[in-house]
# Entry
Amino acid sequence: MKGHLNTDNGIVSIDLDVISRYAGLTAVECFGIVGMAMISMKDGLTKLLKRESLTKGVDVTVEDNKISIAFHVIIAYGVSIATVADNLMSNVKYKVERFTGLEVSKVDIFVEGVRIID
# Structure
């Protein structure tokens, strides 16, 4: 499903991959986020995704033109998970709403791992 904006000049459709990529790029800019994670179903290992593959760590759904986003993240060792999560939620909600013109109704965060930053 896509997000739809009704304007005076017509309808604008926003693909979920576009929203997912934008949300992923916004997330990795947040302090304490090392990157997006993908869990291998075959061996149960968590893998840090490269910048080109961010969308694999972000799940976006749109219902009634309201966006729900779920992040699978790896955070930096020694930071407060609650503080990082709160920062991530508020930044993503604000930026995605401005970018799309649609309401973000929910942001879920799944911490899949912790990494020491050099």
Summary: The chain is about 30% helix and 40% strand. Helices lie at 16-28, 81-100. Strands lie at 3-7, 10-14, 33-39, 46-48, 58-63, 66-76, 103-115.
